[in-house]
Amino acid sequence: MHLPLHLRSPRNAAAVAIGTAAIAGIAWYTLRRPRRSAEEIEHERRELLASIGRITDGSITDAPIRQDGQAGTSAGSLIIVYNYRIAGVSYECAQDVSSLAEHVRDVRADLPIQVRYDMHNPGNSIVVSESWSGLRLSPHPHDHETT
To answer: Helix or strand or coil: residue 129?
Structure first.
């Protein structure tokens, strides 16, 4: 086999070998790395907005319902539909709060709420996360009991 003169140098052969190994390593990592689940991605989005999102006033347009159409906070997907205005633009969004059920018990749709939104993408917003809530909740019946 006849290699060109510039590839016969040990330094050039080592550089080609290192480059090939690096490309193979990057390709292997890209194909084999663990994928984040949709729940992990949504949790990270909520925590980012809870920590750096701006706050504005909003209102709930539809109280938590399950996707099967029944009202309440029992099993199923809980969806809060809300709206808010930023710089004269109205936004209507929905947040699936199924994994945050303990933070959304007895939601009051007749009271204003606070919405956290991304100032670079105002349509990206939340009303509740694990560490923050803009909801005004009814007092839990067990909170006022005395023994």
So the answer is: coil
Which tens digits make up the pLDDT trace of 10-67? Answer: 888 788 899 999 999 999 998 898 888 999 999 999 999 999 999 999 999 987 654 4
Tell me: the pLDDT tens digits for 87-96? 999 999 999 9
State how far the Cα of 80 lies from the Cα of 72, in Å rounded to an integer.
Answer: 12
50: which residues sit within 8 A by CB, 6+ positions away? Answer: 116, 126, 129, 130, 131, 132
At position 35, the amino acid (one-letter code) is R
Domain ranges of the chain: 1-33, 38-143
Alpha-carbon distances of 73 from 11, 28, 41, 79, rounded to whole Å: 68, 44, 24, 10
Place of tokens 């990270």: 44
| DSSP secondary structure letters along 46-97 | HHHHHHH-EEEEEEEEEEEE-TTS-BSSSSS--EEEEEEEETTEEEEEEEE-
How, if at all, do strands 121-126 and 112-118 pair? antiparallel
